[in-house]
């Protein structure tokens, strides 16, 4: 069986970042920048005052009782101020352009004004309370790099840099197909021995969270024609994501149906628990990721494979965050499958410790929904004692926008 790392590498090798599109700033939140963004202007565009006060020549303020003639004012958005000549000052406000001739701002708390003249209680130093042109950034600066996720602060910066529209990656369209006669749509009446297609819900939300656009192809019955019909609807998608029917039973008809639709199979079955019957290939020109039906298997495979697939399609760095922490309880030796064990984080006597759930059956979704971590057990790992450091995937982190 194929190792997890090799399976991931083979999937990513087969995929390239998709095309870009232009969006106004107001619609670009949580999108991925498709090209480097260069500042079209400097900020501030000219030297400006950082305080309310008077623009002066610092050298002239050394004499304590000297009076200056106030020859005009400078305010943000106002007309150009008059220059400051010898013995003169200009009334100035925060953010306003520094008048020619001035090199410092005397704050108004230290000024005494009488009509059209002013004197200062303290001497100024050259450059005091002056923001030079380009203090924040200069025209031509590459402020945002291709592949960055656009959060609120990045959007603000892009706007300040002079951009109203941004080149972003198109959201990859992910067609999601659940398979199984027992399945009903969430919210619908469930017959005896029926199962709610919770995978459809969780996978669509994960796709959205990770920057894609889910397209729900519904539920296909375990019947050749139903599967063939549903598969044909994935034409044109960036990825076809299926769940269920991946294993070896008589009603696991997905692979035969995919075969008839002309699937080029890359691999089926990997050395992973949960997630053994993972399928990867291409059908009708669309990359296909076939997840197992068991809800925990589907969600864990989504974290380990679907997340990097979306990152790759979006031109983002791929990779699974891994941390290290001590176990709260011992673990048995592992077999040949790399295992991802649901665990909660507890406060131990000297810091956080990981407690794997006592039952790891891949149908038990409630334990996953309540887990904080997936403890990773490499193939053939020897028994691990309580207190031993083990690698773990932080679920809260991988489940947010990435
Ligand atoms: N003889 C063998 N049997 C099985 C093997 C094996 O190697 N030899 N592998 C097991 C493993 S591991 C897994 S994982 C499962 C995967 O099976 P399938 O992908 O074929 O999934 P199904 O049989 O269709 O369903 C399994 C389970 O999950 C429920 N399910 C399916 N789809 C959904 C959905 N959309 N939402 C919620 N729950 C779903 C389904 O009702 C079943 O209970 O095979 C083992 N068997
Ligand atoms: O891989 Mo299955 O997902 O072990 O239950």
UniProtKB/TrEMBL annotation:
EC main group: transferase
Lineage top rank: taxon: Bacteria
Protein name (record): Molybdopterin molybdenumtransferase
MoaB/Mog domain span: 175-312
CDD domains, sorted: MoeA
The EC number(s) this enzyme carries: 2.10.1.1
Annotated catalysed reactions: adenylyl-molybdopterin + molybdate = Mo-molybdopterin + AMP + H(+)
UniProt KW keywords: Magnesium, Metal-binding, Molybdenum, Molybdenum cofactor biosynthesis, Transferase
Record-level GO cellular component terms: cytosol
Pathway annotation: Cofactor biosynthesis; molybdopterin biosynthesis
A single MF term (Gene Ontology): metal ion binding
Role played: Catalyzes the insertion of molybdate into adenylated molybdopterin with the concomitant release of AMP.
Cofactor: Mg(2+)
GO biological process, one term: Mo-molybdopterin cofactor biosynthetic process
Family per record: Belongs to the MoeA family.
Cited PROSITE patterns: MOCF_BIOSYNTHESIS_2 (PS01079)
């Amino acid at each position: 069986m194929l190792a997890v790392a090799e399976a991931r590498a083979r999937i990513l090798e087969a995929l390239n970042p998709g095309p870009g599109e232009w969006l106004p700033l107001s619609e670009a939140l949580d999108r991925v920048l498709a090209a480097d963004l260069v500042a079209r202007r400097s900020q501030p565009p000219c030297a400006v005052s950082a305080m309310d006060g008077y623009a002066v020549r610092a050298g002239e303020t050394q004499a304590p009782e000297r009076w200056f003639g106030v020859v005009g004012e400078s305010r943000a958005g106002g007309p150009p101020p008059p220059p400051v000549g010898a013995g003169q000052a200009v009334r100035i406000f925060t953010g306003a352009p520094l008048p020619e001739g001035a090199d410092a701002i005397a704050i108004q708390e230290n000024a005494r004004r009488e009509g059209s003249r002013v004197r200062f209680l303290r001497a100024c130093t050259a450059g005091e309370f002056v923001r030079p042109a380009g203090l924040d950034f200069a025209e031509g600066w590459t402020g945002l790099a291709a592949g960055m996720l656009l959060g609120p602060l990045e959007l603000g910066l892009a706007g300040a840099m002079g951009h109203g529209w941004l080149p972003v990656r198109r959201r990859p369209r992910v067609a999601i197909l659940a398979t199984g006669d027992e399945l009903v749509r969430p919210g619908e009446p469930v017959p005896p021995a029926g199962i709610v297609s919770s995978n459809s819900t969780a996978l669509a939300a994960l796709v959205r969270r990770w920057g894609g656009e889910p397209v729900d192809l519904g539920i296909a019955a375990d019947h050749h024609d139903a599967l063939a019909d549903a598969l044909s609807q994935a034409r044109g998608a960036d990825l076809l994501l299926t769940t269920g029917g991946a294993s070896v039973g008589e009603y696991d008809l997905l692979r035969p149906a995919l075969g008839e639709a002309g699937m080029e199979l890359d691999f089926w079955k990997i050395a992973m628990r949960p997630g053994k019957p993972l399928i990867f290939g291409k059908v009708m020109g669309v990359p296909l990721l076939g997840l197992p039906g068991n809800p925990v298997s589907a969600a864990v495979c989504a974290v380990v494979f679907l997340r990097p697939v979306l990152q790759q399609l979006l031109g983002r760095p791929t990779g699974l965050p891994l941390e290290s922490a001590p176990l709260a309880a011992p673990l048995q030796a592992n077999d040949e499958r790399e295992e991802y064990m649901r665990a909660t984080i507890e406060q131990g006597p000297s810091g956080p410790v990981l407690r794997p759930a006592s039952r790891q059956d891949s149908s038990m979704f409630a334990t996953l929904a309540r887990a904080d971590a997936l403890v990773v057990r490499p193939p053939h790992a020897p028994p691990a004692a309580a207190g031993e450091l083990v690698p773990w995937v932080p679920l809260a982190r991988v489940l947010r926008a990435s």
